[in-house]
Design brief:
With about 190 residues, the chain is α/β, with parallel strands linked by helices. It has helices at about 20-35, 85-90, 90-100, 115-120, 135-140, 165-180, 180-190; strands at about 10-15, 35-40, 45-50, 55, 60, 75, 105-110, 125-130, 145, 150-155, 155-160. Strand 8 (about 125-130), helix 5 and strand 9 (about 145) form a beta-alpha-beta unit. The longest helix has 14 residues, at about 20-35. It is globular.
Length: about 190
């Protein structure tokens, strides 16, 4: 049962070809921590199919009447191929990411998707990580890449490496909003040792 612990709201964006664990585990852990979170489709369709043909039903779409990125405190990008390129091709989302980053609001990306942040200039001069196959893109766009880190937070920007680090990525978001005690509570509940 969801017990809200903060008024902060997070949007996790779903594009065709997303990576399942990187998206769903973030949503799950945020709910466990009591952080309101919406699953947001980047198209007009609420049903979105992953790279491994798992279909999920989002509760919002950026095409919804009245949808406003500013309803959220953090925008989160899962990885996956072709999910990441589909996210990158979504101009309204990319514009919102730049605006959020410039305003000091939360932006997070995992796996291949930190390369989107890099290409948008968001990672310039920041510490970050990404899937090993995309770390060079981040470095080429001015990021200080930390290849040995599961998840990296630099100010309002959080990045992570991939499916196996998704739990740590989500916990870093929890830490960002609720602190270490909330992280410890979630870790105990999910038996993360």
């Amino acid at each position: 049962m969801f017990r809200q612990k903060t008024d902060k709201r997070v949007a996790v964006f779903f594009a065709e070809g997303f990576e399942e664990v990187e998206a769903i585990s973030v949503v799950d852990i945020l709910f466990r921590a009591g952080i309101p979170c919406d699953m947001v489709s980047i198209t007009g369709e609420l049903n979105v199919t992953s790279s491994r043909e798992v279909t999920v039903v989002c509760n919002r779409s950026i095409a919804d009447e009245g949808f406003d990125f500013d309803e959220y405190d953090m925008l989160v990008l899962p990885g996956g191929i072709p999910g990441m390129p589909n996210l990158r091709d979504c101009a309204p989302l990319c514009n919102a990411l730049v605006r959020f980053a410039e305003a000091g609001r939360g932006v997070a990306a995992i796996c291949a998707s930190p390369s989107i942040l890099a290409e948008l200039g968001i990672l310039r001069g920041r510490r970050a990580t990404a899937n090993p196959g995309f770390q060079d893109v981040c470095a080429e766009h001015g990021a200080e890449v930390l290849p040995g880190e599961r998840a990296v937070r630099d100010g309002n920007v959080i990045t992570s490496q991939g499916m196996a680090t998704a739990t740590y990525f989500a916990l870093e978001i929890v830490n960002y909003y609720l602190g270490k005690d909330a992280v410890d509570d979630v870790c105990e509940g999910i038996v993360l040792m």
